[in-house]
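Subject: Sanity check before I submit

Could someone independently write out the C-alpha cells for this chain? I want to compare against mine line by line before I put it in a report. The sequence has 151 residues.
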Amino acid sequence: MKKLILFLVLTACSFKPMFSSNDTDVFVAPIRGINGIELRNSLNTQFGGAHGENAKYRLEVNLHDPSTQLKALELSGVATWQEVKLNASYVLKQGDKVIVSGSESASESYTFVNYLVASNAAYNNAVMNAINVLSDKISMRVIVETKKEEK
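---
Independent answer below. Compare away.
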C-alpha cells in the first residue's frame, strides 16, 4: 500500500527517474585496443545500443593501458596478490561544443598464482571488471550531462 501511495505522489508531481529510459543518443567513437573494444561495447549497452555518427552527442574516450601493482608477497618474495588499474579520459561533445570532459579510473585485485593459465584468467577477469566499472562511471556522468542539456 505504501508503495502505491508513493508511486501516485511521484507521478502526480511529474517525477521521472533519470535512468527510466536508457536510450541516450550518444555515438561512442572507436577506442583503441582490445580493452577499448570491450569498453565501447559496454558503453553502447549503457546508452541503449550503438548509435550512428550522426547522433546528437559524440563521446571520445582515451583508454590507457592497464597497470599492475603487487599487493601481497609471501615470505619467499613470491607475489600472491596483484591489482590491475585502468585509467580513461573522455570528452562528450555536441557538435563542436564540449559538454563535459574528465577522467575516471577503476581498479580490481586478483590472486596471482604460479599456474600461468589460472593467473591469466584471473588477470583477464580483473580487467573486465575494471572495464565494467569504468563504463558505469563514464556513462553515469554522460547521462547526467545530456539530461542537463535537454532541459
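---
OP: Matches mine. For the report I'm noting this point. Residues 23-150 form a domain with the Double Stranded RNA Binding Domain fold (CATH 3.30.160.150).
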